[in-house]
Amino acid sequence: MLVACSSRDDNMSALYRQIDHAIANSSALVGKKEERIHQLRSHLRQAKEQSLRYDIADSLYREYSAYKNDSAVAWALRCYRLAMHVDDSTQRVKAVLHLVDQYTKSGYFTEAAGYFSKLHPECMSASLRCRYYDVGADLYGNFGYSTEDPVMKNHYWQRSIDMRDSGYKVMPPRSFIYYNNKL
Q1: By CB neighbour count within 10 A (0-12 exposed, 13-18 middle, 19+ buried), where does 105 fall?
Q2: Cβ–Cβ under 8 Å, residues 102 and 65
Q3: How many Å apart are CA 138 and CA 157, to the nearest integer?
Q4: d(C-alpha 25, C-alpha 36), whole Å
Q5: d(CA 108, CA 2)
Q6: Angle between helix 50-65 and 26-46 (nearest 10)
Q7: What is the C-alpha separation between 62 and 104, in angstroms, rounded?
Q8: Is the model's pLDDT at 4 over the cut of 70?
Q9: By three-state DSSP, how is residue 55 classified?
Q10: Are 77 and 99 in contact (CB under 8 A)?
């Protein structure tokens, strides 16, 4: 039993060292991220083709998604607007999923649900369906968490579970999203 505790203490110490290292280097990491964002914005200004503009806007959304929420929402909206002018259903679905995900993270559940209702998973590739079910599980889980009505709470949590379970049917078993949902 002491060996198990010692091993856990060593793991925690290693984790704390990694966190301390990340904090100490955070300004360098932020600088690198800001440089990537600057380069992407520069490329976007030069891009003429709508499909390329969408791809760059998508990259900017991804840079901002866990970095600056208000900017992530703005870039998700820009992706959506660009995707509506491109003859590529995959880009349109990805753009809507970006909006739903970011609106959910922001607490704008009504907006997220409005965009989510526009999607039809049966028309999506397997990888987009994985994302659809993951985003849907998060959306409905947040609805369940935020309501005080016990009937609606159970309804939304069940919808979240159903989304998660549907996702397991199409997720590759060794994927990050599969493991993340299993935890």
Answers
A1: middle
A2: yes
A3: 10
A4: 17
A5: 48
A6: 160
A7: 15
A8: no
A9: helix
A10: yes
H or E element that contains 6:
helix 2-24
| Burial track 10-46 (b if 16+ CB lie within 10 A, e otherwise) | eeeeeeeeeeeeeeeeeeeeeeeeeeebeebeeebee
A 10 A CB-CB count for 170 gives 17
The 10 Å Cβ neighbour count of residue 141 is 18
| Measured distance CA(35)–CA(13) in Å, rounded | 32
Full DSSP string of 93-148 = HHHHHHHHHHHHHHT-HHHHHHHHTT--GGGS-HHHHHHHHHHHHHHHHHHHHH--
Mean pLDDT over the full length of the chain: 89
Residue 183 has pLDDT above 70, yes or no: no
Q: What is the pTM of this model?
A: 0.80
